[in-house]
TrEMBL record:
GO terms for biological process: proteolysis. The lineage of its organism: Bacteria, Pseudomonadati, Pseudomonadota, Gammaproteobacteria, Vibrionales. PROSITE patterns: PEPTIDASE_M14 (PS52035). InterPro entries: Peptidase_M14 (IPR000834). One of its GO terms (molecular function) is hydrolase activity, acting on ester bonds. Residues 28-304 form the Peptidase M14 domain. It comes from the Bacteria. Belongs to the peptidase M14 family. This is Peptidase. It holds the Pfam family Peptidase_M14.
Length: 304
């Protein structure tokens, strides 16, 4: 069916006027400077906190920070953790910060760790998947990216001299993906909106070019101690992709411009927490993200 989304003309791609109309109906719903930045700054004693950029929409309101191991050692493998690429996916941001506060110090003994906890602070504040230009940062990780959020992270990654061994990108799949964001995407692109389903539970997305099934399995096993894992649907799929093992699907990360393809890492996973399940609390969602990182790093330590 053609989208009945309130902005645009069904079957026609959005132009500048529609993008402006979309942006004007967004509102600030929570404060990055109150909810996120203080948690980052509180870690400055333990770790190195650096500003790696700012969003031009409002540079003072939207500085971009990373948290790095204090004693960086060129002989240690590098772990990159990213959260809030989709700003509305709350546990991606706060799960990354909880890992930094509670677990990062001990894992810094084996790894150099760098965390970008909130890649899209405008999206965090407006609870949006897109940026103000109606661009999806998580489809914009490629050369000369038009999304500032993605371009700034690409620049940060390029500044790391050592090879990145592990990249864990923290995400959520929410009910609003189906009620708001996918209909908006169909309207923006002037295509047919085909309703889908939202899986109830946690799953991971591996790189189809380098799936690392045992690594993904270790992540799933760690998270299963905290929250439930999403089952496959009647077609043996999760969000339209074949389930390759319990709770795991794969995407071509680089081809799709996903954050999960921003490095050439050996071990990469994109987590997907389901915060709208009646079976979980917000804190359990954060804990699931932490468990994913811990499971991933414990697995990699065994291979070193």
């Amino acid at each position: 069916m053609l989208s009945s989304y309130p902005i645009g003309t069904p079957g026609q791609k959005w132009g500048d006027a529609e993008r402006v109309a979309w942006r004007e109906q967004t509102t600030i719903k929570r404060e990055y400077q109150q909810e996120v930045v203080p948690k980052i700054q509180a870690l400055a004693q333990q770790f190195t906190v650096e500003q790696y950029g700012a969003l031009s929409y409002d540079p003072e309101r939207y500085p971009l920070f990373c948290i790095k191991s204090k004693h960086w050692d060129a002989n240690k493998p590098v772990v990159l953790i990213t959260g809030g690429v989709h700003g509305y996916e709350t546990s991606g941001v706060h799960g990354a910060l909880k890992f930094a506060a509670n677990e990062m110090e001990r894992y810094s003994e084996q790894f150099n760790i760098i965390i970008a906890p909130c890649v899209s602070p405008w999206g965090y504040e407006t609870i949006n998947r897109w940026n103000p230009l109606a661009l999806d940062p998580n489809r914009s990780f490629y050369a000369n990216s038009p999304a500032e959020e993605s371009a700034n992270l690409i620049k940060l990654v390029a500044s790391i001299r050592e090879e990145i061994l592990v990249h864990i990108d923290l995400h959520e799949t929410t009910d609003t993906d189906e009620s708001e964001f996918r209909p908006a995407l169909a309207a923006r692109d002037g295509v047919e909106y085909i309703p889908g389903s939202i899986p109830d539970g946690f799953y991971t997305v591996g790189n189809s070019e380098n799936p690392q099934p045992e690594f993904q399995k270790a992540v799933i096993e760690s998270v299963s101690k905290v929250t439930h894992i999403a089952p496959a649907d009647e077609n043996g799929e999760i969000i339209g992709s074949p389930v390759t093992q319990h709770g795991v699907i794969n995407y071509p990360m680089v081809k799709l411009g996903l954050c999960g393809g921003v490095t050439q890492c050996q071990y990469g996973t994109t987590t997907e927490v389901y915060p709208d399940s009646p079976k979980v609390t917000d804190e359990e969602c954060n804990d699931a993200q932490v468990a994913a990182i811990v499971g991933a790093l414990d697995y990699v330590i065994q291979t070193l």
